[in-house]
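Backbone-to-sequence.
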């Protein structure tokens, strides 16, 4: 289990654990996030100020909790599996759309902030996927949304998956896009 997050300078936003001494990356600057050295995808990003950092666990290199817009909050999980791992862009887009039954609407677009290819998806409907956290029960969640992105990092794909109630997601959309726009090679 990684060490607990420490407080970052400016704004009080916690920072993720720094890379271990055997890792291949430098620590992230204050207010930025990067994977621990052993799972370094070669990219860093800025974390929205309203979001809080939760412990990374399992395949996740980061987990962010997004405040609710009147009801339940949302969660953004960031995954990195290693070079050539994770199933590729198209397979993940299909899987993410398949987590909604029914899928009411979706949109996929390509972005390229600072020379890094990013595929962004937005989906909305009844979220029927199982939880990645063992403490949460699976179930149908009507009027939920997903904002996802697959970043083609220099050491492999990095997967950003934000899910939650549609109202909370609408409020978090600009923050999510700002985070994606901040992604850069280390």
């Amino acid at each position: 289990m990684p060490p607990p997050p420490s407080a970052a300078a400016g704004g009080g936003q916690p920072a993720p654990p720094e890379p271990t001494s055997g890792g291949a990356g430098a620590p992230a600057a204050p207010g930025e996030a990067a994977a621990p050295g052993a799972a370094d995808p070669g990219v860093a990003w800025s974390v929205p100020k309203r979001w809080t950092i939760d412990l990374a666990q399992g395949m996740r290199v980061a987990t962010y909790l997004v405040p609710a817009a009147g009801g339940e909050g949302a969660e953004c999980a960031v995954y990195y599996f290693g070079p050539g791992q994770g199933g590729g862009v198209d397979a993940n887009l299909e899987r993410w759309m398949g987590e909604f039954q029914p899928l009411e609407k979706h949109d996929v677009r390509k972005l390229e902030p600072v020379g890094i290819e990013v595929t962004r998806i937005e989906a909305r409907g009844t979220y029927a996927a199982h939880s990645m956290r063992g403490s949460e029960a699976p179930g149908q969640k009507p009027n939920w949304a997903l904002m996802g992105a697959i970043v083609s990092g220099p050491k492999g794909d990095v997967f950003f998956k934000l899910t939650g109630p549609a109202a909370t997601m609408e409020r978090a959309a600009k923050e999510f896009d700002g985070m994606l726009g901040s992604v850069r090679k280390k």
